Each structure stands twice: as C-alpha cells, then as structure tokens.
Amino acid sequence: MSSTNNFKLLAGIILSVFSININAQSKNNANEKNTTNKYYNWHNLDAKTNHIQGISTDIAYEKLLKDKPMKRVVVAVIDGGVDINHEDLAGKIWVNEGEIPKNGLDDDNNGFIDDINGWNFIGGKDGTNIKLETAEITRLYVKFIEKFDGIKKASLSGKKLAEYQYLEKAKIKYLEKANKTKNDYDDISGFASIFKEADSTIISILNKPDYTLNDIKSINPGIDKRLSSIKDLLYGIYKRGYNRNQFNSYYEYLDKKTNYQYNTDFNPRTIVGDNPELWNDIPYGNNDVIGNTPEHGTFVAGIIAANRHNDIGMKGIADSVKIMVIRTVPDGDERDKDVANAIIYAVNNGAQILNLSFGKDFSPQKNFVDNALKYAASKDVLIIHAAGNDSENNDTVERFPNNYDSTGNTIMRNWMNIGASYKKKNKTLTASFSNYGKKTVEFFAPGENIYSTQPANKYSVMDGTSFSAPMTAGAAALIKSVYPLLTASQIKEILINSAVKYPRLKVYLPSQHEKKRKKVRFGDLSVTGGLLNVYKALEMTEKYKNQ
Question: Among residues 356, 329, 307, which one has the least CA distance to residue 467?
C-alpha cells in the first residue's frame, strides 16, 4: 500500500478512535502558572460574587476567618505519592517528630523505620518502587485460570461455587476491557508511524517544532498528493482541538493498559516482596513518599494545602494543615492490603481526615479494608472518597473501597463520597465523567478543569472526582482547624446540611456519550442534590457551636 493511501485509510481510524477516547484523558499543561491559566482558582470562587459555582473559599477567608485562631489539622493523602519539595507545599508537609531522619532506626516504635513524612506501602526494602501495576480484574482473571480452568461450574457447590462465580464475573469484565483496549491499541499503533511521518513533514515545511491549526491551513500542497493527504489528516485532528501531545498521551495510555494493566504475565509485586493476599507480614514497604508516580497525589495535596499567601502557583483551601503522605496507589489498581494498612497507619499517626482519590471494580480482600474503616471510625476519623469517573450510578454499580459490609450494612458514619461538578449553574453543572448516586454520593464539588500543583514546581489542569474529594477534605480540614472540638460526624453533618441545594435544576446526566446525554434533576444525583460550599459551612458551624 502506498504512503498516500496509508494516510487516507488510517485517517478515518484515528479521527474516530482518537477523538472518542481522548476526552477521557486528563489535561496536562504542566508549565502554565496561576493567572496565565484561564482555569486558575475558579473552584475557590463564589456563586453570588463571581457568578461561578466554586466553593466560596476566598470570600470565607475575607469575611469569616479574619483574625480567627486556627489549630493544625493533619490530612492523610493516600495516593501515588506527593512531591514534598514542591514550592507551593513548603511548610505544609507533615513531619513525624518522633522519628530521627536517616538513622535507620524506628525511633518512635510505630513499626516503620525513618517514616519522616509518611510511608510507602508499594516500595521495596531496597528503596525500589512499584510504578506500573496490573488491574484487579487481571489478577482475578489469572486466579480463575489457575483454579478453575477446565472445571465445569455444575460440579461445584458451596464456597467453591461462590468463588467460581466471583472470579468468573471478573473474567468476563477482564476479557471485555482487555480486548477493547487491545483493539484500540492495535489501531493507533498502526497509525503511529504514519502520524509521526506526517508530523515530521509539517515541522520541516514550517521550520518550527510546534504548529497551530492556522499553520496547517496555510500550507499549499499543490499537486503533491502525499502532502495533500498529510495536510488533510493533521488538519482534521487539530480542527477537533487535538494535538501531538494529546496523541502521544493517548498512545502511552493505551500502551500502559495493554502491556501492563491487562498483561497477565506482568507482576511487579516482587519488588515489595510480600504476599498481598495475607495480612500477617507487616510492616513492609519503605519511606520514599515521593516515589515514581507523584503526579496525581501532588495535584490532590495542592488542592487541600497549597500556600495561599506566597503569591505563586495556586491557593489551597485549608491554611493550617499538614499533609501526611501515604503512597498506596500505583499506575494501575491498588491492592486492598495496602489500602487497609494505609488507613491504619494514618489513624495511628494522628491524621484526622483521610483523602481517598482512587477506586476499582473488584475488591477480593475487602475484609481487610472494612476492618481498617471500622478502626478509623473508632478513632473519630473522617474519610473522604472520590465517587469515580465512569459516569455510573454508584447506587447500582459496585465500586471499591466503599462503606458497606458483606451484608449491605453501613460500616462507618464518618464516610463521604463526592461527585464532580463544573462552574456554571446550568445543564453542564455535572461533569460528564462523574459517578453519581441518590443514596451513595453525598454531594458534588468542583472536579472539571481544576488547576493545581504538579511535581518539580509545575502546575497543570486536570479532571476527575479525584479532585472533588480533596475539595471536600480541604473544607473539612478548614472547619476542624477553626473549630477543633467538632467530631468527624459533626463535620460531615455540617458539610451536608450547608451544601447549596439545586434540587430542581435540570442538568445533563453524566455519560461517556456526550452527544446522547439526557437531562435529569440535579437533586436526583446525590443525597443532598447540592454543591460543597465552604462559606455556608463555616456560617453553619458558628451557629452549631453557639447552639
């Protein structure tokens, strides 16, 4: 097949596969800083003053918090690691004062050596760390093959049948997701060399490393059919708002999914050196809380705690807060054992609020996590969890971790599940990717086009309920710092009761198919039908205290 025909044939593939799926990927303009970015600080603005559906943080500081004494609150960010050296997090990272740095001893006798700023449960004793991991459904698929391949379902009963059915459910989901991802990966891999050739050609003609839609449009291919095809291809991609960086990002995303997350031969857990299905071999891991996947956790930490007064970067929500960093989430699915141990570590070391911006479809060692949640409840700790980014109803679809035991009963009162919202009070208020639930999602908070910190003193814009959760964790920490005697349950009650309610507002039901989204009442998408609001929460807290 000629190069020209390759361009024409594969252009159709890329413009369909790429344009449909790239929307699910995070925006990442890592060199943009504060007011040069159009999304800077919108989440802290106020609906009445700024006509933006932010959480009213800035006006709360201006009108309610002047000269208010604040006590330090510790928030555990259980995530993929945090860049503790970021310029906007200086002075905001928790320090274990009972530990002497780098002496190789467990000075405070908490079971962890040199845990100065937290702990890394996905690292090895030799200092190496897990970066990429498999999906939970991949691990369960492997287990199904090992235990039940060739065995007929009709021959099983009791616990064996129940295990078979559980693993079979994961197997079906694995094959569905793995096959789709592999097909997309094969399509885009076939196109990658064509795209690279087209990109290089345009760079050479324009004599500039980066180009715009207008630059492509200005090229006159004349009678050169190959150049005409290249121009048509790149013009089609750039006209849809996509570019080289997004193409490369999507290609890397599919590569990770195909060759690591859904790869049944991949097992990085040997780095840790434990059995992740057993509870009896702790402690494990290392003290490298930055690790090799700190992008997501750094973004989360910035939302909660970035310095509000240094005139650089961004404004965090809570002034008097320290971030305890617990590395548990790799690029792939977290392990239940690590999540449980992270919760217990956070509670034992003084964290009052835990932020969990992660989740998955299956939880084979759920009892580990359930026991950790019960322990957190007994110590009056508030846990904030991201609702998820699959446009699904959490009332009907299981997502883990969650706050329900095997019988469907609530595990702890101090648990909150948060959906993602956007800035306008109209049909676009709900983020298209956000999970929702009239029974299982407390309310929505900003989660689309959020500007926050990235490693190496950079900043970016990203989407996800992962960032709606720390909005809420930051608000809870702010309330706790001003009113330290409030319990976790009281703070949750205040946040829920003070949410700005829009029960009858017609909004788009979150959906992966944006062109087919139907309208529903906002009040039907969460417990409160409301949005997080710091100002109203603080107002209510003052009345609550007086009463």
Answer: 356
pLDDT digits 0-9 by tens, 278-311: 997 678 999 999 999 999 999 999 999 999 999 9
> Based on the domain organization, do 365 and 511 belong to the same domain?
yes
Which residues lie across from 508 on neighbouring strands? 519
HEC profile of 390-445: CCCECCCCCCECCCECCCCCECCCCEEEEEEECCCCCCCCECCCCCECCCCCCEEE
What is the layout of strands, in order, in the sheet containing 443-446?
A: 118-120, 321-327, 73-79, 353-356, 382-386, 415-421, 443-446, 530-531, 500-501
Q: Read off the DSSP letter of residue 264.
A: T
Give the number of C-alpha atoms closer than 13 A to the C-alpha of residue 96, restricted to the C-beta side: 30
pLDDT digits (tens, 9 = 90+) for 398-431: 999 999 998 999 999 999 999 999 999 999 999 9
Domain check: are 208 and 187 in the same one? yes
Q: Which domain holds residue 257?
A: 3-22+136-261
Average pLDDT over the chain reads 92
Token pair 């699910």 is found at: 24
CA dihedral of 76, 82, 85, 88, whole degrees rounded to 10: -70
Position 383 in a domain: yes
Lowest mean pLDDT among 109-123, 206-220, 439-453, 464-478: 206-220
Q: For residue 79, what is the DSSP state?
A: E
SS3 484: coil
Say if 360 falls within a structural domain: yes
Same domain, 448 and 512: yes
Q: Which residue has the higher pLDDT, 14 or 218?
A: 218
**Residue 27 pLDDT > 50, yes or no?**
no
Decide if 109 contacts 336 (C-beta within 8 A). no
